[in-house]
Design goal:
Blueprint (H helix, E strand, L loop, with lengths): L4 E13 L9 E3 L6 E3 L3 H16 L10 E5 L5 E5 L11 H6 L1 E3 L7 E3 L3 E3 L3 E2 L5 E3 L4 E6 L21 H11 L6 E7 L2 E12 L5 E3 L9 H9 L3 E5 L2 E5 L2 H17 L15 E7 L2 H7 E5 L8 E5 L6 E4 L16 H15 L13
Antiparallel strand pairs: 1-13, 1-17, 2-3, 4-5, 6-7, 8-13, 9-13, 10-13, 11-12, 14-16, 15-16, 17-20, 18-19
Helix pairs in contact: 1-5, 5-7
Protein name: CRISPR-associated protein Cas7
């Protein structure tokens, strides 16, 4: 029986970078080797893939409404309280169709679509092959080169702003200075070989359920989609609407590209890294991925050590790029390896029969 899933594992090299911007680099501790492991969350990888997808199609992401509510605070002053953002829950936006959505309002339908893409965190290939750099660093947000262009404000204990003359007098009396600089101590960066895994559920990739018990669409949206050429089909989960063939044909190559060429961009990471892709494994069996791109403990060292392994006999289709030879012994890649992997993904997505997914029950 043909698997309705497409599985992908990507191996990347990260060098002296930070995957996130808030509270420094995220990490967890490996319980077997007791070492800290830097990682980029699956949500962050997913957002980066969706960014690459919408950029490749040259379309805007779905408009999200950010809600604020006013309320009266102390001394009858107006305050703002942030509420749940609203998703349009509209699968005509490609990032909603492939990324999923949810909207829950009091007195309204609760609408939820699970993404057909299940995405892992990007984490080290092996606990001994990547993670946090041992040396920690101190950072600065420095504007001391142009002090006149970057003002410094000082407030007293009551919150009143001091004038320039008052600040100058205070600095003279306290023998202090107030530089245009913020000190950010004790930060770390990530380096090494990292992997991410993606599972694509082909059954729901372009199909949106019309089940009213767990609705993925508002009733009015169903009529709109039908008017736009969405057709009624049935998959393993029940009746659904299938995106028009023109939409599928445009989306498939863009999705194949995005799955391999996404980047953690500037608003998601503090420093840019090429994060070059060294190898890609593709299969309809998830177990094959773990064998095709893996880390292996070395037996010729006294202290625990590991080496990366690329295995073409593990059952997955393996594509190796040129930079891999710089990090993996014997890994001789091809200059067009990633383009071949992209074509392989697109071909597998095209071959799935989205219109005829269910097999009629036999008579008798």
């Amino acid at each position: 029986m043909t698997s309705p899933y497409l599985y992908l594992r990507g191996l990347r090299h990260a060098e002296h970078t930070v995957f996130s911007v808030q509270d420094g680099q995220k990490y967890y501790t490996d319980v077997q080797f007791n070492v800290r492991q830097a990682y980029s969350s699956g949500q962050q990888v997913k957002r980066s893939i969706m960014d690459a997808l919408t950029t490749g199609l040259n379309v805007a992401p779905a408009p999200i409404t950010f809600n604020w509510q006013t309320k009266k605070g102390k001394n009858n002053e107006t305050q703002f309280e942030q509420k749940e953002p609203w998703s349009p829950c509209d699968p005509t936006h490609v990032d909603q169709l492939l990324g999923g959505y949810m909207r829950a309002e009091t007195g309204e339908f609760t609408i939820k679509r699970r993404s057909p893409l299940s995405i892992s965190a990007m984490r080290p290939l092996h606990p001994l092959l990547g993670g946090l750099e041992r040396e920690r660093e101190n950072l600065t947000f420095d504007r001391t080169s142009h002090p006149a262009n970057h003002p410094v404000r000082v407030r007293d204990e009551k919150g009143n702003e001091l004038s320039k003359e008052e600040v100058d007098a205070l600095l003279l009396s306290t023998k202090r200075n107030l530089p245009n600089r913020i000190w950010i101590p004790d930060h770390s960066r990530a380096s090494g070989l990292f992997v991410y895994d993606v599972a694509v559920d082909l059954r729901t990739l372009f199909c949106v359920s019309v089940n009213t018990l767990e609705p993925e669409l508002h009733p009015t949206k169903v009529a709109e989609l039908k008017a736009q050429g969405w057709t009624e089909v049935c998959n393993a989960f029940g009746p659904c609407l299938l995106a028009p063939k023109s939409v599928r044909e445009a989306t498939i190559p863009a999705l194949a590209y995005a799955l391999l060429n996404w980047r953690i961009t500037s608003n998601q990471a503090r420093t840019f890294s090429l994060m070059e892709t060294l190898a890609v494994a593709i299969s309809d069996n998830a177990n094959h991925l773990a064998g095709a791109i893996r880390g292996q403990l070395r037996e010729d060292t006294e202290r625990p050590a590991a080496k990366p392994m690329l295995d073409e006999t593990a059952g997955a289709k393996l594509y190796v790029s040129l930079p891999a030879s710089g990090y993996i012994a014997g890994a001789y890649g091809a200059p067009n390896a990633l383009e071949q992997a992209e074509q392989d993904i697109a071909q597998r997505l095209r071959e799935f029969d989205y219109e005829n997914q269910t097999v009629p029950a036999s008579a008798g």
